[in-house]
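User: Assemble these into one structure.

Assistant: Restating your components, then the assembled model:
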Amino acid sequence: MKTLLRNCIYQGKNVYRDMGFLFWGLIYPIILVSFFYIAFSGISNIGLEDIDIGMERENPISAILETIDMVNIVEVPRKDANRNLAEGNIDGFIDEDLNILVNDSGINQTMIKGIVEQIKQMNSLNRPMENYDFEANYIADRDQEANGILVIFYSLIGMVSTYSVFAGIETVSLAQGNLTNIGARLNITPLKKKDFLFAGIIVALAFNLLANGLLLLFIEFVLKMNLLREARYSLALIILGNIFGVSLGIFIGASNKQSIGVKTMFAIASTLFLSFLSGLMSPDIKIILDKNLPILGRINPLAIIGNSLYRVNLLGNTKDVGVGMALLTLYSIILIFGAYMFLRRRNYDSI
Amino acid sequence: MIVKVDNLVKRYKELIALDHFSMEVREGEILGLLGPNGCGKTTAINCILSLLSFDKGEVEVLGKKMTPDAYDIKRQIGMVPQEVAVFENLTVKENIDYFCGLYIDDRSLRREYVEEAIDFVELKDYIGFYPKKLSGGLKRRLNIACGIVHKPRLIFLDEPTVAVDAQSRNFILEGIKKLNREGSTIIYTTHYLEEAEMLCNRIVIMDNGKSLVSGTNQELKAMITTTEKIIVRFSQDDDGIMERIGDIPHVIEVTEEDGDYIIKFENGINNISNLLEFIMENNLIYTKLYSQLPTLNDVFLELTGKGLRD
Ligand SMILES: Nc1ncnc2c1ncn2[C@@H]1O[C@H](COP(=O)(O)OP(=O)(O)OP(=O)(O)O)[C@@H](O)[C@H]1O
Ligand SMILES: [Mg+2]
């Protein structure tokens, strides 16, 4: 226990002082998420912010609109409507006769028109307004479109949850006498290789979970996007992503004799590629693949994490999450077992 | 015998790095493993420590067969590898403490040992430095400290003083003697004759993966036929002088090097006076004349037909 703790502390120091880790584990994900945020902000905003509708206090439909969650009613006198539209304070203005004033054409404006049309229709049919579910018919539609963009963010979170891969590579390299001088040196101390590796795994998980947490805080409080609404499943998925990552790192580290730098680049490239297939960069890729090669989305570990996060948090659908989690666990076990076989074979010829 | 190596054979593909290499180390001694670059010193150490598998032979350390998981043996061993092997992102002190902690659990004892090791390699002014900020020589000193900090019973040092300046080297050699006085047995590989001569109780001379001879400094020198070397320089050249010198009693070889004649003798106690007599008889004038006892280089030269100096 003492040995484990000491190894965790020193390996931890060795890792967090490494600029490479800080960059790939912490800074790179924040840069990526900021980049995507800026690139897609025009579209993603609508998915996250309420529609601001301006109207006068006495407007009879204000009571109806108030029941819609995503609609925010702003009290604006008729004469100030144009100015408020121009300044962007409201997305649209509705007068007493249900005429609509807009200054822009976008999804929000379409939405307002749709809602107003609906109200007019119901009026003419003399149906009670309370029975109509605006949420289901319009708002869900609108979210669907914005959610396409959100796939990217869930993919990104999925990808960085596997970034424990770097520390996994590092620890196995340091433990192996045929990979590093330190490895050779450690091999003649009484420290057992598995103790060193175990400490390395703990450190890898701890650091990457911390880095993931910081990224999520950044998304939540700086970018002000509320992505993780279903905390328990999300946490489980992220932890499994971390475990998969460190297993992958240990496998990559143990399976060949390339330098740590080469292995790290390989890890970055492969996780990026798998994330790309799961919708990072462009949701269209995911849509095309889901249509033509659906199996890929179900077995690609990065897609499993990203899609599950998306489904659980946005669609509230937890149906297939268990299967995905089981698959991730299976992958991790296979990778660790593979790494174990490599390490065992090398056990004797340490250099 | 604290270490017993019997007929080790190690191949790297076609290359035979160790060719029936045998060696014994006695408890309490400083054993020098001396040989030129590439003769197999590091390979031998790595095989002894089970870092490398070998094709044939047997290794016993501390009375037991050495294996990769002989942790009870490893507890009592220290090793300073030829290549610097320290954690790049741990400071000097953290590195030493880390390696010490792999052997020593007691915290206050560990602190004491770490301080002693820092003094041993004179790194007191650098304890907060990261290895990449240390010069090559300082890094090697850290490398040494990490290997000896736990005061092991048996220490392997693989060319620890390469790239260390002369002053620090002497300090380190003195430190190694001190470790030895305090009870550690030392195995020291080097290609520096002077180090082996001044430090080691016993020396194993190695070439091409074989151990050629072993013994104390004196024993080794007694093994060869040369017992004395006289170096002489004459003020003028004289044809055929080399042959005539060769006729002096007990001379076994005469060579010329930059105008100096190097005359090797076997046995005989009157070599200098015999040579002086020869000089007078031939009316020669000498500008330099001195006598030397054979060095390890002569031993090596006689055994292998080539010098050990680069
Ligand atoms: N991993 C390896 N693969 C193939 N050949 C090797 C390997 N390591 C060493 N050799 C070869 O084995 C021979 C012995 O090497 P070794 O490193 O043991 O020599 P050494 O006596 O320690 O030399 P030096 O004084 O330069 O350290 C050399 O010819 C070397 O080229
Ligand atoms: Mg060597």
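Chain B has two domains: 3-221, 228-293.
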